[in-house]
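Mods, move this if it's the wrong board.
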Amino acid sequence: MSFWRDRNVFVTGATGLLGSWLVEELVRQGANVTCLIRDWVPASRLVLEGFLEQCNVVRGELEDLTVLVRALNEYEIDTVFHLGAQTIVGVASRSPLSTFEANVRGTWNVLEACRICPKRIERVVIASSDKAYGEHPTLPYTEDLPLRGRFPYDASKSCAELIAGSYYATYGVPLTVTRCGNLFGGGDLNYNRLVPGTIRSALRDEPPVIRSDGQFIRDYFYVRDAVEAYLMLAEKLPREDLLGQAFNFGYERALPVLEMVELILKLCEKPSLKPKILNEATHEIPAQSLDCSKARRLLGWSPRFTLEEALRETIAWYRAYLRPQPRTEWVPAS
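Not the wrong board. Structure tokens:
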């Protein structure tokens, strides 16, 4: 019997890339899922593939504490996955206040709601990011490094983590934090991100666009492996040696942006396409990579996919999603 069968689970950010895949798996395993939805996103996998219809839906914002407290109480939540955030680095640079409101205030509101409703809450998983580390001279990142986010998005994740730590240390909220590499997978419709943008360009026989100089180094991570990591971590809570801890998750295979683009083009069978390098990215960390040995040691975790396998699945998803649909002729009613 699944660990998640009949558990009451609350997911913020449910219509996003990670949220949609996580909710799908929770529903498959028999959980009673309640989703916090701010905007109606009809193109989200959660909507398109019918999983939202199998969930409770709470309409509201992370910035509204009253909505969060009501949701946890009325749906008798025992598990919280806090994934909701403003996740686009460029948007954060253009609009830092709205990013801080969502990512920082939103996190303390979720944690405060859990503090107010302590009797039923058994586990809380907070989604942070490798960006929370900021820039460090030595790579890869290990979880004991200080959080040094400087630019708006990075700082928002650093702040959210510090606040989470204080709620654990002071109030005993049974939480843990995840720091993943750059997530990718089917259903990510933010085409200004590297992976979906490159795949869409390749499928259209157009040169992919690289906003940076192509030399930034990143650790990438497939969303289906991320879902398995989140569920494994949550299932082990509230184990004492995990509470209040942060865990890195990724493939431990950091690549320059240009090399990642060339790999995608190769797997799309479009190696002759030449990327257009804009070299206009600002407020970005030059190099990031993750050490995931703590997750292997304490959780027994390892990814199921290789990077190439994950990219092939992702390309197949977009190939089906972007395939032109046959047009039907409109016939007026008689």
